[in-house]
Description:
This protein is an alpha/beta fold. Helix content is 37%, strand content 21%. Belongs to the 'GDXG' lipolytic enzyme family.
Amino acid sequence: MPIDAFIRRLERLDAEPDAPLSERREAYERLHRQHRPPDPAGLRFEDTYIAGVAVRRFRPQGAESGCVVYLHGGGWNLGSVESHHGITADLAARLGREVVSVDYRRVPEASYAAALEECAAVVTACAPLAVVGDSAGGRLAIDVAHHGWQGPLGLIYPVVGVPTPETLGDDAPLLSRADILALWQSVADDVPAIPGERPPTPAIEVLAVARDPLTRPLEAAVEAWRHAGADVGYRCAPQMVHSALHGHAELPAMRESWQAFCQALVRRIA
């Protein structure tokens, strides 16, 4: 699939920006459910609870011991274990490990602090081999690490530091600077005040996309983390946009970068 066709598909979600949040959530879930790839052969999953928090557990056939915790994106007010099912199912198959996807509560029904507490509770209970998060979930993963968890971290186009007009890159399809700043304002009062240049863990794998306002501050953070002594792997998918991970099965450039990211995580946790 050409990236422009993927962008047109997801632009439908912005067709009615003033629609009630409940309707936008339904549209978000429906679109990603309709276009997610089939589950890998032999994969099983179940919805359950860990530490009182709703999760979806993915178990590939012949899985090795140990699990990975996944924190989904969606701007802290969208997204779920269902919308990100295609990503987490594929991650479990590529890692050959169980993946625990956390269905943390979202803004505005719950605060960012409450979401972070739930994510940290699952991580503490699972003692995972790695924690992975995309976009808003990537920021939760960073803050879970600063909360005390110090294993390998996998970050896919996360929000790092404090987004400002000066630090963000240019507008791009599917995610504008204004979108990021507005979403940040919805959670800023509850986000831990930790400098973005402080490495969240000693071992980090990062996947960015070329057309994304978040890539500029992310690359600055990667440089700072390396300077501070962290072992950081970095790759950037050419021509790809924010949310392109949902199209990993259809977009060749995203598929290649995602595969490299997953292979790097395998080496981290082996």
